[in-house]
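Researcher: Please translate sequence to structure tokens.
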Amino acid sequence: MKSKTFFTRLRAMTKWSLALSLFMATNSNAQVQNREVGVRFSDLSSFDFVYKTQKAENKFRRYRLGAANIGLSTLGGSTQGQFNAQFAIGTEKRKNIAPNLQFIHGFEPAFSLMAYSLNSNATFMLGLGYVLGLQYDLSPKMYINLEAIPSISASVGALSGKTLAGISSGFSTSGLAFSVVYKFSTETTKKEETK
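Model: Translation complete:
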């Protein structure tokens, strides 16, 4: 009975997370030409995918999907599952400080969902971070960057039928991330006005 309740909660949280991410990722002004896609490493075993669209001179909208995994295992006739995903969307501003070197900064709200059936644990987290980093252009089409995202977050969850809530914040060098990003441009046409 507990596993049905757990999976019902997991299904509901997953639906809300997907609906929220689709709502946040919707871009009503699709006139952006410069885009960037890359991989962000926080250590050797975990990484995020990063996608950026230029909104104005030295201003980008950034989307980050990280730690997405789904696992299912059977041990002694007992099935155990896990799900973990994080999505962030924010604004990145860039300031030139030397040839090929830019200071990057901007707000990045994030949310994540973690669920484990072993102990009927499900947690939903909302956070607000601020990106701080340096970006170095290797070529006109590629750059690397080093960044940290100090943040504050609130979480709510359930563990074995008990509700848990918490608030956390942090900034440390263990939160530094290294990214490799490819730049590209796409041509979009403006819709012709009908008379």
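Researcher: Any highlights?
Model: The longest helix spans residues 2-25.
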